[in-house]
Amino acid sequence: MQKPGQSNRSSHRCLAIYTVRTAAVGRDKRTRLGHRDSSQRVPALAQAAAMPLLEETTLPQVHPPTLPVVIIGNGPSGICLSYLLSGHKPYLDTATVHPNPILYRKLQESKQLSITEQDLEYLSEGLEGRSRNPVAVLFDTLLHPNADFGYEFPPVLQWKRDKQQHVPHLVLGRATPGGAWHAMEGSMLTISLGIWMELPGVNYRDLTNGKRRDVTSDRATPEEISSYYRNYVKLKGLQNNFVDNTYVTSVQKLCRGQEGEGLENRHTDQGDGGVGDGGNQGFEGNGVDKGGGGTLWEVRGYQQVQNDTHVPFSLFAENIVLATGASDSPVHLGAEGEDLPFVFRSISDLGLAISRRKLDMNSDPVLIVGAGLSAADAVLCACGSNIRVMHVFRKSVDNPDLIFKQLPKTLYPEYHKVYNMMSSQTYTNVAPSSASDRPQAVSIASSVCAKMCPKPQFAAGNMAGTASVSLFPVYTSFPEHGVVSFQSDMTCLLQGNDSLKAFKISMALVLIGTNPNLFFLKGNGQYLGQDPTKPISCTQNPIDVHPYTYECANEPGLFAMGPLVGDNFVRFLKGGALGIASCLLKRLKKKEKLISNGGNNFI
Length: 603
Hints:
By secondary structure, the protein is an alpha/beta fold. Strand 14, helix 9 and strand 15 (389-393) form a beta-alpha-beta unit. The model is unreliable at 1-13, 16-61, 212-216, 257-293, 431-472 and 596-603 (pLDDT under 50). Strands 3, 6, 7, 8, 9, 10, 11 and 22 form an 8-stranded mixed sheet that branches. A 5-stranded parallel sheet has the order 13-20-14-15-16. Among the domains are: 66-245 and 515-599, 3-Layer(bba) Sandwich (FAD/NAD(P)-binding domain), CATH 3.50.50; 332-426 and 472-512, FAD/NAD(P)-binding domain (3-Layer(bba) Sandwich), CATH 3.50.50.60. The protein has helices at 38-50, 76-85, 101-109, 120-124, 134-143, 204-207, 222-235, 347-355, 373-384, 413-424, 444-452, 570-591; strands at 20-21, 28-29, 66-72, 86-92, 157-166, 169-172, 242-243, 246-256, 263-264, 295-304, 310-322, 329-330, 343-344, 366-369, 389-393, 475-479, 482-487, 491-495, 500-504, 507-510, 514-515, 558-560. Residues 259-287 are annotated as: Disordered. It comes from Gymnodraco acuticeps. One of its GO terms (molecular function) is growth factor activity. This is Oxidative stress-induced growth inhibitor 2. InterPro entries: FAD/NAD-bd_sf, OSGIN1/2.
């Protein structure tokens, strides 16, 4: 068992293989977490290589110990929740004064109690902020008072460790702690200030040597943030809660019988064995506590260990927390030819093409689709290397919902530079004197022909040739345009307000957002959304949760936090950790299931 302070070896630790069916004897072998007995483990590894995933319909004959909580996702959401579940409790720091007098008075009324023990609805009442979730606004103002007004007041909280309040849990993640931050471009700057990215109890600047570059200096690089999160887990002694390189493939809801006689599998044969979409239907009258007390969850998947071997695992938990973030599945245009090899969905692909010198100033333009910050980053990357850019987006440049209109110019000068180009360097704004050199619109008739024929027709002087726009030789925007199709000869067809236009391109980057991938839930978890008839979307259709506990409205015992509930910024997703921890601590305290040894004794 690894102790806090030792080197982090969680990436080499294995989950128990609770159920590995061997063909030779036709029975289950079972090991405990961390057990290294080669007589049991070698057959398991050999079997895992032949069959990477467990049969979804197989249940353990003797089920493993039941954890109170399993957290799926080891990004900042999962890390923060692990910290709170490990006995760390926030109290009002009596040496500070919150600038909101009403909130400060409420905090003083029960200052002897931790925030997790208090009424979060009462504390959140009347607060306003940039999150739709009231607890997120509450926790943010406690950690960063008046941050939206440009102030940097100290937190009004002090943290105390109470080992009696430790909730046993595991955090399952596909890589090392930090989640998607490890995969992001290391040289770009985050949208949020570095101090807004920090987690409770560890100052961000302390781990980054207090770097301050300029007025934008407090914005961090993804490399700095991922390093901060990785070190945070070590500094707070949370390593034993984390199991890296794990891939969850199935989450199923089971039910204990009224008499406690074993387990009854309540999922049906419909679909692929995920969570049933009846919410609590089928469990009424079976002794199921609406607070998740009678529900049991089975989590299945595999862990990738040495030599890329996949080792299956199975865990039982009373509560599941979805903290998977939003970066799993890029959104598709639905355009013809979108699966062609020159169409990409990550800015890293652009950087790779530039570093390998597949693109230069003489290349055909790079098509960038999208009006968000990822698209803006791609524009900056391409223009910085003097590569021609066609920037296509559906919104008008005056649309108030454009993200650039919400960012202060002093903090985000590079994004406002992109917005200025989007507004002034449009396809229709090029000076008439340079019309022969700029991209030329094709008539509707010839554009339709371009769509129908193998090789789209071009007018003279378009971007397919060597000529460039003389006034703006690098960048041209196409507001209120959409992509109709991509062709195998590396041409694209664009639809504007009044015509279709065809252009030759060197590559396309479709950067129009990402959606969470909840494939391990029944129906991809769609029934959990605020609109259960539509797929889960972090911006358009987040998971419907209780505003103060973050428990799914349609699934007791299942919680969600972070981007899945609409909190796309780290400063607000921490509120989900507060709400969930408060709910679970109160619930488990009633059941006397908190442990006093301060560690996970099943690892």
